[in-house]
Amino acid sequence: DVDLVTCVPLHWTRRFRRGYNQAAVIASELARCLAVQFSPDILKRTRRTATQTRLSVEAKALNVAGAFAVRRRYMSFRAQSRDLPPRHILLVDDVFTTGATLTACASALFEAFGPELRVSIATLACVPRR
Asked: What is the pTM of this model?
């Protein structure tokens, strides 16, 4: 019952350097397999964040807190169109480590679409805690 699939966005400078968003590649294929809409640009980074690889659990949460928002054009859905507010979003990232990034993204989605929204997550890999 997923309405659409989206992904964790990269900051534009990181995406430019890398050439692609690996989470978007995964999310696109998941959306195709589920036969649902893929909307890679619902979320945006509001600021550039430090790489998370060497940060502590607490530092990761602080690093990404408030770093994501829903793009304005997705916040005003027209009741007469087929673009109704989503009820269940599948949020995709490449790697799950502490959940800080996914939590920050989900918070932005709940803020925009309300607490009745369901957010599920999918990742390609999970890094075990040490």
From this structure: 0.87
